[in-house]
Amino acid sequence: MRANSSATLVIDQPLSARPAIGLWWGLLGVAAFSFTVPFTRVAVAGLAPLFIGSGRAVVAAVLAACALALTRQRPPRGAQWARVAVVAGGVVVGFPLLTSFALVSVPASHGAVVIALLPAATATMAVLRGHERPSITFWAITGVGAVAAIGFASAQSGGIGQLQLADVLLFGAVVSAAIGYAEGGKLARELGAWQTVSWALVLASPLMVGMAAFSMAGQPPSATPVQWAAFAYLGVVSMFFGFFAWYRGLAIGPMAQVSQIQLFQPVLSICWAGLILGEDLTWTTIIGGAAVVFCAGLAVRSRSGPPRAKEMAEVVEVAAQRSR
């Protein structure tokens, strides 16, 4: 876990002449992240959403602090701390808390479909952050994907224009994570990939510890062993160890191909919701999920520009899997 092992520091050429190795590592990372939404749904059945959203970040922050200390990583400097704060606000605070509260009242499969918009949202934020000028096709496909996600959420809520509060929270989680991922992608070129995630966790840890303590004081945690196991997974794997396989795959490359594997994540999450939670996967869920994933894939692929912009696109996608 040295600084020179970061995926974002190896852009010009892959680490291996066998691309399949990178794809398998990337698939392992995505498989790890795909359990985030179903396991959050399991955990909220016995634990307070505030405790889950903050407590999982505290667990990951302890692991991150140990990793940073053991490898003697150079801390961010000057304005980098403000950028780390943006990353922390998006992926350490915003996404976990918003999804935890949302999944109290909606099925995991429902949440997975809405969150499937994240790759396209991340690409959009990266475009805005990098002052790029993508084609009209990119904006059109991204818009169609957003309409598909909103249409699905409305249909599940009882009709067009009748979104639940949970849907608003899920869309907020997507925007929050996309902002964090876009800024994290740029910052990772300076600090390293897993290092950026780790510093964000450490920076947010005082706030998250305070939130967890507040939640415990108001509602002492009481859950079944299965619910505690789900919580442990969220903290140890979803917010920390899952990144190592993902970043390893991106480092081996080819990065452009490996990064596309993230589009399988919502599909897997929907499958786990049916297999693990026994949720009824209706045709609305299947069609809605397929439409959003298809649009997200087209949006990511249609984002084009000069070589410098393409290089930035690869770096952004390195940071675009933290689910939380």
Any descriptors?
mainly alpha; 14 helices; disordered N terminus; single chain; 324 residues
Describe the fold and architecture.
By secondary structure, the chain is mostly helical. Helices cover 74% and strands 0% of the residues. It has helices at residues 19-33, 36-43, 49-71, 80-102, 108-115, 118-129, 136-156, 165-191, 193-218, 225-252, 255-259, 265-275, 283-302, 307-318. Helix 2 crosses helix 5 (108-115) and helix 4 (80-102) packs across helix 9 (193-218). It is globular, with a radius of gyration of 18 Å. The protein starts with 18 loop residues before the first helix and ends in a 6-residue tail after the last helix. Mean pLDDT is 79; it is low at 1-16 and 304-324.
